Amino acid sequence: MRQKIVAGNWKMNKDAAASQTLVDALLQRKLPTDVRVMIAPPMIFLDRLAQQAQGTVLGVVSQNMHAAESGAYTGEVSASMLKSIGVNTTLLGHSERRAYFNETNSSLAEKTAAASLAGIEMIFCFGEELADRKSGQHFDVVQAQLEKALFDVDALDWDKVILAYEPVWAIGTGETASPKQAQEMHAFIRSLLAEKGSEQIAAQTSILYGGSVKPNNAEALFSQADVDGGLIGGAALDADDFMEIVNAI
Ligand code: PGA
Predict the structure, then answer these.
(1) Strand order of the sheet with strand 58-60?
(2) How many CB atoms lie within 10 A of CB 208?
(3) pLDDT in tens, 10-66
(4) 235 CA: nearest ligand 1 atom
(5) Best of 162, 168, 213, 221 for a ligand 1 pocket test (most atoms within 8 Å of beta carbon)
(6) Contact criterion met (CB below 8 Å) for 5 and 36
(7) Which of 24, 54, 139, 180 is in the most buried spot, having the most CB atoms within 10 Å?
């Protein structure tokens, strides 16, 4: 179902006490009921924070998931492990996973297939690099990322897919896509969903924007017709900033 979503990706930030403090602060606020608010804390705190958020409107999601069900994959976690602690959503394909951990469109296709099969909802991240945009290739790059890791996957459960367009040049750089650039790409993505999926998929899939979303630019980005919310990095580490962004939607 297409819905308004603001998700905070904490990346590898905050220790046990600091993660607890941030969740306490968020749970003390009045979280909206018409916007899905989610956080993706470091894996080691998922279980505890998911328990803490149970019964509230705050969603706790994983930053990553392995494609295999179990086995000799040191340091990894599977879909069933996430489900066993009540975590039913994961980020997949974040640009830092692609850049530093060798995730590719084809390894991500295995992950999206595994998540879909296991009934895990995914926030699938993708976006072009600066050189792609400078050379005018950004639409092609995004199309290839979506084709290989989503459209080409057999029996993908689109009800479990949230898209997060994150131009790599805007992540953690303070450089944001302009609202016009974001809308132009989101409209393109929605047209691809209609063409390669169906009109229904296009109408029902939420497409988030990510990349230096801050309290002072969130409203302009979120007011674009095809922008359904945001995936927030740096500004999700502070309760006031994050809530200002949530309330901008
Ligand atoms: P940023 O990160 O908001 O710090 O740019 C966004 C992301 O990586 O999801």
Answers:
(1) 58-60, 36-40, 5-9, 229-232, 207-210, 161-165, 121-126, 89-92
(2) 26
(3) 999 999 999 999 999 999 998 999 999 999 999 999 999 999 999 999 999 999 999
(4) 3
(5) 213
(6) yes
(7) 139
Q: What pTM, to 2 d.p., does this model score?
A: 0.96
**Which atom of ligand 1 is closest in space to residue 125's alpha carbon?**
9
At 172, the pLDDT band (50, 70, 90 cuts) reads confident
Q: Among candidates 45, 2, 35, which has minimal Cα distance to 218?
A: 35
Helix (H, G, I), strand (E, B) or coil at 92: strand
CA–CA distances in Å: residue 95 to residues 51, 53, 166, 177, 214: 28, 27, 8, 16, 19
User: Is 103 labeled as catalytic in the residue annotation?
Assistant: no
Strand blocks (E) in 65-120: 89-92
- CATH number for the domain spanning 55: value is 3.20.20.70
In the reported structure, the alpha carbon of residue 60 is separated from the centroid of ligand 1 by a whole-number distance in angstroms of 17
| DSSP code for 62 | B
Structural domain that includes position 34 = 4-248
**Other CB atoms within 10 A of residue 24 CB:** 11
